[in-house]
TrEMBL record, chain A:
<dbReference type="GO" id="GO:0030313">
    <property type="term" value="C:cell envelope"/>
</dbReference>
<dbReference type="GO" id="GO:0016491">
    <property type="term" value="F:oxidoreductase activity"/>
</dbReference>
<dbReference type="InterPro" id="IPR050553">
    <property type="entry name" value="Thioredoxin_ResA/DsbE_sf"/>
</dbReference>
<keyword id="KW-1015">Disulfide bond</keyword>
<dbReference type="InterPro" id="IPR013740">
    <property type="entry name" value="Redoxin"/>
</dbReference>
<dbReference type="Pfam" id="PF08534">
    <property type="entry name" value="Redoxin"/>
</dbReference>
<dbReference type="InterPro" id="IPR036249">
    <property type="entry name" value="Thioredoxin-like_sf"/>
</dbReference>
<feature type="domain" description="Thioredoxin">
    <location>
        <begin position="35"/>
        <end position="173"/>
    </location>
</feature>
<keyword id="KW-0201">Cytochrome c-type biogenesis</keyword>
TrEMBL record, chain B:
<dbReference type="GO" id="GO:0017004">
    <property type="term" value="P:cytochrome complex assembly"/>
</dbReference>
<feature type="transmembrane region" description="Helical">
    <location>
        <begin position="391"/>
        <end position="411"/>
    </location>
</feature>
<feature type="transmembrane region" description="Helical">
    <location>
        <begin position="40"/>
        <end position="65"/>
    </location>
</feature>
<dbReference type="Pfam" id="PF16327">
    <property type="entry name" value="CcmF_C"/>
</dbReference>
<dbReference type="InterPro" id="IPR003568">
    <property type="entry name" value="Cyt_c_biogenesis_CcmF"/>
</dbReference>
<keyword id="KW-0201">Cytochrome c-type biogenesis</keyword>
<feature type="transmembrane region" description="Helical">
    <location>
        <begin position="423"/>
        <end position="444"/>
    </location>
</feature>
<comment type="function">
    <text>Required for the biogenesis of c-type cytochromes. Possible subunit of a heme lyase.</text>
</comment>
<dbReference type="InterPro" id="IPR003567">
    <property type="entry name" value="Cyt_c_biogenesis"/>
</dbReference>
């Protein structure tokens, strides 16, 4: 008993060493992940952002089919970089809705003219209220909402060309 | 040229440290002339090592003062238009420089042990210096192979990138050296413990030799933590004074271990008890310093203090950690059986009280360690989380309160054994004071948090109890270390009252005002007079003039939004009005784009200053004890010289 106690500190340090070494091996993940993944979409209702396109409410989701919810802004450079991938997703039949944050109607309309318009509906979230309630920390971010209105997945940052196939597969796997 | 000279000095220091280790092994292994010569040489060698590494540090400070931008470290962390004090302090406001500062203080500590330490038996002294050489050698290797502070940049840039403005504060310029000196003082205790394990000489003489180092390190850590907390309070503009940030925890853990060590080393010195435990704590205290430094430097825990996120460096330091801490703990396991058990004692006794104190401190240390590392463990299972105040308060708070109760009783206990009933009678006044405070606060305020209420009551009780040991004594004949204990314990009580008042009575207000408008926070009426621009040596600012008034008392405060261009950063410079009963804390926020109103964050924090006043008292207590020990040793030497 006494002898075991003497070696206990070394054992504890060994555990500590392994924990730290394991922590060191793993690359740091600096993304801010939403705590709402696997939870229902919070309720919201946003006015239309551009003329001729409806606004967005949480009731648009959970109608039996999965949809993408893209958070973007016309002033956001990575959103420009992401636009071709969103257009590609739309071309493959993925329904995409959007929330534009801290933005003005004419600016968004100009953005859509220049970069293409993959969106079925765009909500005006001028003070980022809905963005924050989604647990999103920046633009662009994209959420995958399933047919029951639950947030299934969060894609942080701009969607890259090599992610398009994966997202289509994710959509297919979601009900 | 200066940079190369620094690098050469660093290489030589590393070689001399290797020699120091070698001489130590020779001195202990070889009998006869070789061993004798090695024993005689190791002291001077340690002093030379200290001098060489000090030269390297001086060279680094010189290139920073000259803003020699051909040195990569200077280009990345300094700027020609920076006030000289921050050029000076900028030498350690970065990863490489802070590691060099660390080994410099380590070298200086080793030199001091070689030069001044006389109470230790010779073999243990030599083993101690060899252990210091071994520690230094590893960190030199780390500097030379993984973090060279003198690396050149070709071509040299035209201008440097500047120092993080948050670090451009006079308090912070001297915060790292203070903490490092504390850590390194603990490295000496660690080396003593390793030396004593090698020679098997664990006893009162060993404890008396180690005590001043532990005390000195503990005082410096206390000052460093207190000052760091005040810096975070006024510089970050969040109005909080402790955030349970991994780096704050990294400085708190060695302090907790050093506090436990400080008490157990007294038991060993005075009563020859707690031998194995004291050695263990000496190992743990410095291990915690190294783990703390490692966690900060490796970037595996995200923190505002992280300089370099570089897994290779992390792996290097982790290997050093495994070598030193693992080695010391293995040595402990192998050798402690040969150290005779110390003297025994009854549970209700001064020793018993100190053992309980040690155990409680260790438990708190364990809680802080687990809380700090838990995010890392959770990340291994794919869960991302941060552990914050709710965990630490709930887990450590109640134990801290028990610890305070033991602190109140402990100093009144007799050595070896005491009567439980007599102890209760002695504790009458402190208990009355605590219960009175409790009842008074309950009736006056109605609802305040349980932890704050208990903290306040226990704090008052602790102050009363801490004064008890000197009430029946002749004050002029009371030894200084006793005064030190009283002052330090009172200091903790004062600090606790500050913490409790801050968390229970703080009034907070977030308002948006037009110039000319006023608002109320606590007993103060604060009027926003106007907003105007201001400039400093390397910043420009928007400054608010606030007039704060409270029944005839008034003060003008000038909080700023400060903009630095190198690197481009905005900081909130809070403005604070200090009164005897608290501080009015003001922060200027953004202008609301739509309405043109200015955001102001205002706090009235009753008695918050007691937190740092208490910290200062704790440190002062340590200083008194240290001076008392020195005086006694000096008197003893003089007496021996006279009668000798």
């Amino acid at each position: 008993m006494k002898r075991a106690l003497i070696w206990l500190p070394l054992g504890l340090f060994g555990v500590l060493f392994v924990v730290i070494a394991a922590g060191l091996m793993r690359p740091a993940d600096t993304g801010v992940h939403s705590t709402l993944v696997d939870k229902p979409l919070p309720a919201f209702e946003l006015a239309p952002m551009v003329p001729g396109k409806p606004g967005l409410a949480s009731s648009n989701f959970g109608t039996g089919k999965p949809r993408l919810l893209n958070v973007f802004a016309s002033w956001c450079i990575p959103c420009v970089a992401e636009a071709p991938q969103l257009m590609a997703l739309k071309a493959r039949g993925v329904p995409i809705d959007a929330i534009a944050i801290h933005d003005k109607g004419p600016a968004v309309a100009a953005f859509l003219r220049r970069n293409g318009d993959p969106y079925s509906a765009i909500g005006d979230d001028s003070r980022s209220r809905v963005q924050m309630s989604l647990g999103s920390s920046g633009v662009p971010e994209t959420f995958l909402i399933d047919g029951r209105g639950r947030i299934v997945r969060q894609y942080i940052g701009d969607i890259r060309a090599d992610q398009v196939d994966q997202i289509v597969r994710d959509m297919a796997a979601t009900r | 040229m200066i940079a190369e000279a620094g690098l050469v000095a660093l290489w030589f220091a590393a070689m001399v440290a290797g020699l120091q280790l070698l001489l130590g092994v020779l001195a202990l292994r070889r009998k006869g002339a070789v061993g004798e010569q090695a024993m005689a040489a190791i002291g001077p060698v340690a002093i030379v090592q200290g001098a060489l590494v000090a030269m390297a540090m001086a060279a680094l400070i010189a290139v920073f003062l000259n803003t020699d931008l051909s040195v990569e470290l200077v280009a990345e962390n300094s700027h020609s238009a920076k006030p000289w004090i921050y050029k000076f302090a900028g030498a350690w406001g970065n990863h490489e420089g802070s590691m060099l500062l660390w080994v410099t203080i380590l070298g200086a500590g080793g030199a001091l042990v070689a030069w001044k330490e006389r109470t230790l038996d010779r073999a243990t002294h030599v083993a101690t210096l060899a252990a210091q050489g071994a520690i230094a050698l590893g960190f030199y290797a780390f500097l030379l192979f993984a973090s060279n502070p003198f690396a050149r940049l070709n071509p040299a840039p035209i201008e440097g990138q500047g120092l993080n403005p948050l670090l451009q504060d006079p308090g912070l310029a001297f915060h790292p050296p203070t903490l490092y000196a504390g850590y390194v003082g603990l490295s000496v205790a660690f080396s003593f413990a390793v030396g004593a394990l090698v020679t098997g000489q664990v006893g009162p003489a060993f404890a008396r030799a180690m005590r001043p180092w532990v005390l000195g390190a503990w005082v410096l850590l206390t000052i460093g933590i207190t000052a760091g907390s005040y810096w975070a309070y006024y510089e970050l503009g969040w109005g909080g004074w402790w955030f349970w940030d991994p780096v704050e925890n990294a400085s708190l853990m060695p302090w907790l271990a050093a506090t436990a060590l400080l008490h157990s080393v007294n038991v060993l010195a005075a009563r020859d008890g707690l031998r194995a435990w004291t050695v263990m704590l000496a190992v743990v205290a410095f291990s915690m310093s190294m783990i703390g430094t490692f966690l900060v430097r490796s970037g595996i825990l995200t923190s505002v203090h992280a300089f370099a996120v570089d897994p290779r460096r992390g792996a290097f330091i982790l290997a050093l950690l495994g070598l030193y801490i693992g080695g010391a703990l293995a040595l402990f396991g192998a050798r402690i059986g040969q150290v005779r058990a110390g003297r025994s004692f009854a549970f209700v006794s001064r020793e018993g009280g100190l053992v309980v104190n040690n155990l409680l401190l260790s438990v708190i240390l364990g809680i802080v360690l687990i809380g700090t590392l838990y995010p890392l463990v959770a990340a291994g299972f794919g869960v991302r989380l941060s552990v914050g105040p709710p965990f630490f308060h709930a887990a450590a708070g109640p134990i801290a309160l028990v610890l305070v109760a033991v602190m109140a009783v402990g100093p009144t206990l007799r050595w070896r054994s005491d009567e439980a009933e007599a102890v209760l009678i002695r504790m009458l006044w402190p208990m009355v004071a605590a219960a009175g405070t409790f009842a008074l606060m309950l009736t006056l305020t109605g609802g305040m948090g349980v932890l704050s209420l208990l903290g306040l009551s226990f704090g008052v009780g602790l102050i009363v109890a801490s004064i008890l040991p000197i009430t029946r004594r002749n004050w002029r004949r009371t030894p200084l270390p006793i005064w030190g204990m009283v002052v330090a314990h009172v200091g903790l009580g004062v600090s606790m009252i500050g913490m409790a008042c801050d968390s229970a009575f703080t009034a907070e207000r977030l308002v948006a005002l037009y110039p000319g408008q006023a608002t109320i926070v606590g007993p103060w009426r604060v009027k926003l007079d106007r907003i105007y621009p201001n400039v400093g040596p390397n910043w420009s600012a928007l400054e608010a003039r606030l007039t704060a008034t409270r029944d005839g008392d008034g003060e003008t405060l000038r909080p700023q939004q400060r903009f630095f261009t190198d690197p481009p950063t905005t900081t909130s410079e809070s403005a604070i009005a200090t009164r005897w009963d608290g501080q009015l804390y003001t922060v200027l926020g953004q202008q609301d784009a739509a309405t043109g109103r200015w955001q102001l964050r205002l706090w009235w924090k009753p008695f918050v200053t007691l937190i740092w006043l208490g910290g200062a008292l704790i440190a002062l207590g340590g200083v008194l004890a240290l001076v008392g020990r020195w005086l006694k040793a000096w008197q003893q030497r003089r007496r021996e010289a006279l009668w000798g």
